[in-house]
């Protein structure tokens, strides 16, 4: 799969976006591609893929990090920690 870098934003087509949410990505020096999950203007959290292939979810309103097998599971965790209904 090819990643496209456009003005420091990463476009990654393999990540499916849940309805009513948006994802953008930035290149992070420590994490590589760091994805941000948005609901309107609200940043709900970020997620990234670690070296072992697991997805790490970092909800904005929580200090916890959890590991998941898919990007969609990481998104669900961020949404549930944000207190918003899917």
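^ Assign residues to that structure.
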């Amino acid at each position: 799969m090819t990643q496209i870098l456009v003005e420091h934003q990463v476009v990654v087509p393999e990540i499916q976006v849940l309805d009513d949410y948006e994802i953008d990505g930035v290149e992070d020096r420590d994490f590589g591609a760091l994805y941000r999950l948005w609901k309107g203007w609200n940043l709900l959290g970020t997620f990234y893929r670690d070296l072992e292939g697991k997805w790490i979810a970092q909800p904005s309103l929580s200090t916890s990090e959890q590991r998941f097998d898919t990007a969609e599971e990481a998104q669900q965790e961020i949404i549930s920690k944000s207190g918003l209904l899917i």
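Confidence is low (pLDDT under 50) at residues 1-8.
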